[in-house]
Design goal:
Elements (H helix, E strand, L loop, with lengths): L1 E6 L4 H13 L3 E7 L3 H11 L3 E3 L2 H5 L5 E4 L3 H13 L3 E4 L7 H13 L4 E3 L7 H11 L6 E9 L13 H4 L3 H17 L2 E9 L10 E8 L4 E7 L11 E5 L2 E6 L9 E6 L18 E3 L6 H15 L7 H20 L3 E2 L1
Parallel strand pairs: 1-2, 1-4, 2-3, 4-5, 5-6, 7-10
Antiparallel strand pairs: 7-11, 8-9, 8-15, 9-10, 11-12, 12-13, 13-14
Helix pairs in contact: 1-9, 4-5, 5-10, 6-8, 8-10
The site of nicotinamide-adenine-dinucleotide (NAD) has 20 residues, from helix 4.
């Protein structure tokens, strides 16, 4: 078992990562917790049977742990990742890895210098439906991929002192916070993105970061993509869809993009010898539902990272995904500001 510590234990770590790793992981054991709230971390220690808990980063990093999962607010990542690497710990960092591309790159350089592993917590690559889509594309079952769309929205009203609602502490709004996962999924499935155009605005809420973001991506293989992220659509209205279209078929998911490991997926595969139909005939129920057993995305991402430490076999969530992702995000912000397409 790889021994893990958690820095920033109270948010997503408490909601998803820790309970799912404790319950489902085969290679990862969380043995120490840290949060700035003593009351919270003490209570969590009891709840999850973890008897080492701390309120200081220095203290947790002195412990006998192999790796740390950093799930504190984004503005804390840069210094905490550096502290962990300097203490000789491997790091799985929550998304976005930092506030800027330069900070992200600096973390990676430090990890390389220290000969330590660093990854980004893009756990959605481990959703069973996303893995199935990746497999269908790799097997060329959808033909030439021509279009992809990834959507993640929520209702996020103003909250006093919310770090996500300020640029200095969150790095941005709906795009950097939710769009990073969507961009990552499209790049992972379709291939490298080459060019970006974006409209990024704040049209509903009174905070400074964007609540409204649509970006258009052009991939190296010619396919096009759309990533749409909104902080101003009711939660119950959200479908959080992933759609991939090729010349021989298509897949559509509903609610597979999100923190829940489940979702729904429909697949259409074209039969042989399709010709041109001037009627553009469409059968009502051409798509077939695909039903797969959900598996914890968070336990899988921890175990893939632990496996990397144990065997040297790189997981799909290694740092390159986080660095590339940031380049696209910064290009999208630049595109929206300068009102032009940005080549990567
Ligand atoms: N992958 C996912 O499913 C997912 C979902 C939500 C958030 N996230 C990411 O996780 C990170 C945290 O987001 P969140 O929504 O959990 O935030 P949050 O504000 O809800 O929780 C953050 C936790 O960190 C603690 N904290 C604050 N300052 C700290 C410090 N200096 N050192 C240690 N702990 C500190 C807080 O007390 C709190 O318990 C962000 O990078 C976010 O983008 C990922």
């Amino acid at each position: 078992m790889v021994k893990w510590g958690v820095i920033g234990a109270g948010g997503i770590a408490r909601r998803r990562s820790i309970p799912e790793v404790v319950k489902f992981s085969k290679k990862s054991q969380i043995t120490a917790l840290m949060d700035i709230s003593e009351e919270l971390v003490k209570e969590m220690g009891k709840e999850f049977g973890i008897d080492r808990w701390y309120t200081s980063v220095e203290e947790i990093l002195k412990q006998d742990i192999d790796a740390v999962y950093i799930a504190s607010p984004v503005f804390e990542h840069e210094k905490q990742v550096a502290a962990a690497l300097n203490a000789g710990k491997h790091v799985l960092c929550e998304k976005p890895m930092a506030l800027t591309f330069d900070q992200t790159e600096a973390m990676v350089h430090l990890a390389e210098k220290k000969n330590l592993k660093i990854g980004v917590a893009f756990m959605m690559r481990y959703n069973v439906y996303h893995q199935k889509i990746k497999q269908l594309v790799e097997e060329n079952q959808l033909g030439q991929i021509v279009y992809g769309r990834a959507q993640l929205t929520c209702w996020y009203p103003p909250i006093p002192d919310a770090w996500r609602q300020k640029k200095a502490t969150g790095g941005g709004g709906a795009l950097i916070d939710m769009g990073c996962h969507c961009i990552d999924l499209l790049e992972w499935i379709i291939g490298p993105c080459q060019e970006v155009t974006a409209f990024i605005d704040t049209i509903t809420h009174p905070y400074e970061v964007e609540d409204t973001s649509t970006i258009l991506m052009k991939f190296k293989n010619g396919a096009q993509g759309v990533v749409d992220n909104f902080f101003n659509i009711p939660d119950q209205a959200a479908k959080n869809m992933l759609e991939i279209y090729g010349t021989k078929g298509a897949v559509i998911t509903h609610n597979s993009i999100g923190q829940d490991s489940a979702g729904k997926m429909w697949l259409y595969l074209e039969s042989e010898n399709k010709g041109y139909s001037s009627q553009q005939a469409r059968t009502k129920d051409a798509y077939q539902e695909v039903i797969l057993e959900p598996k914890s995305m968070y336990a899988q991402e921890f175990d893939a990272f632990s496996h990397w430490i144990q065997t040297g076999e790189k997981p799909v969530i290694h740092y390159e995904a986080g660095v590339r992702n940031f380049r696209i995000i910064e290009a999208a912000y630049q595109s929206s500001k300068e009102r032009k397409a940005i080549k990567l």
